[in-house]
Amino acid sequence: MADDAAMDRAKFTAMTEGTAEDWAAIGRASQAHRGEHVDRIVSHLKLLDNDYGGFSVDRLEHSLQTATRAHRAGQDEEYVVCALLHDIGDILLPASHAELGAAILKPYISERNHWMLEHHGIFQGYYFFQHLGLDRDMREQFRGHPDFEYTAQFCHLYDQNSFDPAYDSMPLDAFVPMMRRVMDVPKHSIYRKPAAA
């Protein structure tokens, strides 16, 4: 079996030597691992469990509450998955956590949801920046952007109020099928041919 796998590998040692057959072998190898990126993201989400960071709920519970609120409000699966992953960068990139969640989901979501994820940290600051000596109105620099109110509503309705220890959140397993559907095929990627017009 190992010999079969070795036989179905690219033969080049530098990309300048690559052939269509090499890239077909690479494509076949990638297909064998299709969907594993979701498992890896779920594993990283689980790292947020028991990390309270001083809050009344741990970071995983905050993520689950945010996604549960969005789901129960009737938001579509893409939005709910965005809500679930919005703070996935909290422990890996605490100085720019919003950008990490946005980068993970960028190939799979609308530009509107990507903008919301990428900027939610600044918009969430409306609720607490003043306590840190920062400008709570930092989000105003984006006033007039088509997704300003959309992002403000995400923070107001689902994010800023999801620190309730008594809230009945859905379990992480309930969201995994949604993640698989949303993240099954990239909508935007430099590695995909553009759709025929």
Mean pLDDT: 90
Residue runs with pLDDT of under 50 for 5 or more positions: none
State the end-to-end distance.
Answer: 42 Å
Q: Could you state the order of secondary-structure elements as H and E?
A: HHHHHHHHH
Strand content: under 5%
CATH superfamily: Hypothetical protein af1432
Number of domains: 1
CATH class: Mainly Alpha
Question: What is the count of helical runs?
Answer: 9
Q: Under CATH, the topology is which?
A: Hypothetical protein af1432
Helix-strand category: mainly alpha
Proper CATH architecture: Orthogonal Bundle
The radius of gyration is: 20 Å
- Mind summarizing the main beta sheet? none
Q: What overall form do the CA principal axes indicate?
A: globular
Number of strands: 0
Helix content: 40-55%
Summarize the model shown.
By secondary structure, the protein is mainly alpha-helical.
Keywords summarizing the entry:
197 residues, mainly alpha, Hypothetical protein af1432, 9 helices, globular
